[in-house]
């Protein structure tokens, strides 16, 4: 499986994941040919909730005025467009008032071609996201857990969560989200007091083996700085950094 194929699967998976969230809670969405935009009007200052994903560069160029209207109509003051490496849309975004502000590594692996090691610790299948929310807040701050709250009590559908407990307390967990034959990995977190013990690796091993058992062909994710080396050791490939092109109008 090529890097380009994995990158396309990642974009499709993230878009579907956000659409799933929008269908369950207060996240708002705008779907246009070649792209999808998401806004959280209840928290307009959180850029992590105001995002545009696209797979058609010309469609994005044509939609820039519509995106401006969409976010302004929801009172959102800043939003970002994720741009994969090598995409030529940067100059058009710059002319429209966007500026590059940081990037996030995109990663993927072919489940059929990658040797997987079973977890050495027991992993629990969590029946709800109730415990995953405070774990992410503890690991990454309150805003990191915000996206879970609107839909944590809704039917799960393609969401599967695995976690590790110690003395009855959840100390590491993550979830996978299936789109066709690709598993997207999200919200892998370890409690600060339990770090440096390889628990994120154990959670990932469980999620990947489960995905292979469901006949998923690939796993994809956007990496944090903390998790990047973990994912590389597990066989994930770097697909390049997705650049945040940010529009601020307030």
Question: What do you see in this structure?
Answer:
The structure is a single chain. The protein is built from seven helices and eleven strands. With 250 residues, it is α+β, with helices and mostly antiparallel strands. The longest helix is centred in the N-terminal third of the chain and has 22 residues, at 3-24. The protein is globular, with a radius of gyration of 18 Å. Helix content is 32%, strand content 32%. It folds into two domains: 3-104 and 241-248, Aminopeptidase (3-Layer(aba) Sandwich); 124-239, Aminopeptidase, CATH 3.40.630. It has an eleven-stranded mixed β-sheet with strand order 1-2-3-4-11-5-10-9-8-7-6, with helices on both faces. It has helices at 3-24, 57-73, 90-95, 132-140, 142-146, 199-213, 228-233; strands spanning 28-32, 35-39, 51-54, 78-83, 98-110, 124-125, 159-166, 169-179, 182-190, 218-222, 237-248. α2 (57-73) links the parallel β3 and β4 (78-83). Residues 119-250 form the N-acetyltransferase domain. Keywords: Transferase.
């Amino acid at each position: 499986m090529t890097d380009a194929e994995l990158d396309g699967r990642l974009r499709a998976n993230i878009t579907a994941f956000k659409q799933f969230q929008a269908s369950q809670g207060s996240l708002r969405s705008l779907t246009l040919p070649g792209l999808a935009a998401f806004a959280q009007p209840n928290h307009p200052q959180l850029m992590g909730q105001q995002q545009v994903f696209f797979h058609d560069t010309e469609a994005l160029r044509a939609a820039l005025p519509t995106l401006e209207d969409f976010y302004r109509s929801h009172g959102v003051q800043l939003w970002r467009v994720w741009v994969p490496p090598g995409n030529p849309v940067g100059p058009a975004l710059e002319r429209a008032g966007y500026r590059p502000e940081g990037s996030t590594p995109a990663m993927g692996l072919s489940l059929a071609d990658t040797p997987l090691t079973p977890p050495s610790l027991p992993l629990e299948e969590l029946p709800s996201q109730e415990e995953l929310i405070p774990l992410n807040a503890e690991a990454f701050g309150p805003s990191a857990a915000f996206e879970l709250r609107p839909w944590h009590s809704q039917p799960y559908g393609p969401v599967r969560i695995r976690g590790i407990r110690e003395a009855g307390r959840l100390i590491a967990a993550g979830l996978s989200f299936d789109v066709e034959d690709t598993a997207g990995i999200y919200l892998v977190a370890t409690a600060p007091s339990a770090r440096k013990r390889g628990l994120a690796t154990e959670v990932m091993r469980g999620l990947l083996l489960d995905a292979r058992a469901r006949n998923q062909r690939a796993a994809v994710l956007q990496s944090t700085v903390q998790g990047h080396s973990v994912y590389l050791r597990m066989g994930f490939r770097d697909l390049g950094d997705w650049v945040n092109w940010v529009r601020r109008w307030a």
